[in-house]
Amino acid sequence: MKCARFDLNLLLVFDAVARTGSVTAAAAHLSLNQPAVSHALNRLRDIVGDPLFVRSRNALVPTPRAEAMIGRARSIVETARELVLPHTFNPKTSERAFRVGGSDFTLLLIIPALVQLLRSQAPRSTLDLVPIGPQTLTALESGDLDCSFWGTTPPGPPYLHRTLFREHFVGVVGARHPLAVKARRGTLSLDDYLAHPHAMARFRDPGQSPIDSALARLGRARTIGYASPNFASNLAALRATDLIMSLPSRLLSVFKDKDLIPFNLPVDVSDFSYSLIWHRRLDSDPGCRWIRETAVEAAKSLQRRRLEDDGVGERKQP
């Protein structure tokens, strides 16, 4: 066969004729006129060197050569359609494994609702929560992560983001802490706050803690007595020690513990945005779009619960 360039449209016509057994029906199926289909079929006959279809009673039937071609030609046509037609995502049937970045805050607060939505809407899919760290942005760029929850200022292009909610910090001490009475009364001062060591949650860049930044603006600093990337571990360490901890206020709804006494911070720490970020290369991917929309839905359900929780939805004495 002397043909350096092959017109794939000929296979489209071939497949249509094989399916319908008629040039007229194939033309209607392809939204072409009958002469155009006949011309294309004759071109393919010349290339292959075989009549391909012969008339038998009221239909065209494939020759042995055409029979051998039908399966592979149909596969090529279907593959071409998949390449160029809009890709879709069906959560009910998908077996996709989603990889999402998140911190301990995410794990405690949002992931339970997200997993519940995933199990009800995409029961055959899986969710892998990957700890955030210095590698997170690179993983988003390479596609190793579909998206990531983000607690600091979102990165700029080529990353995109959606703000989920605004959050602020509160302080917590154990019920037997020397400052427990002041914490309950709301009279805990900045000097009190700095007189004892602190437990700190570290995730990406401990030098960028908003607590330490606010203290530095006042020329003050706190002493870190214990640090870990785990809020639950830090809070457990408060119960029988003189440690103090500052944490996002929404976690109070998770750790409802009479042995932990919350208080308003005696230093002005700016609120922060909690966001979902992703790389723009995955912005239009239907599966990635679905998991992002589901994560937003999970965050909204958290907001609804927060409004129903007295003393947590507003910034006042916890």
Give a description of the structure.
Strand 8, helix 10 (210-217) and strand 9 form a beta-alpha-beta unit. Helix 1 (9-20) packs across helix 3 (34-48). The strands form three sheets. This protein has a five-stranded mixed beta sheet. A five-stranded mixed beta sheet has the order 9-8-10-7-11. It is rod-shaped and about 100 Å long. The protein folds into three domains: 9-84, Winged helix-like DNA-binding domain superfamily/Winged helix DNA-binding domain (Arc Repressor Mutant, subunit A), CATH 1.10.10.10; 97-166 and 273-308, D-Maltodextrin-Binding Protein, domain 2, CATH 3.40.190.10; 169-270, Periplasmic binding protein-like II (D-Maltodextrin-Binding Protein, domain 2, 3-Layer(aba) Sandwich), CATH 3.40.190. It has helices at residues 9-20, 23-30, 34-48, 64-84, 104-109, 111-121, 136-142, 180-185, 190-194, 210-217, 231-238, 286-308; strands at residues 53-56, 59-62, 97-102, 126-131, 147-150, 159-167, 169-174, 198-201, 224-228, 244-248, 260-263, 272-279. It starts with 8 loop residues before the first helix and ends in a 10-residue tail after the last helix. With 318 residues, it is of the alpha/beta class. The chain is built from twelve helices and twelve strands. Residues 310-318 have low confidence and may be disordered.
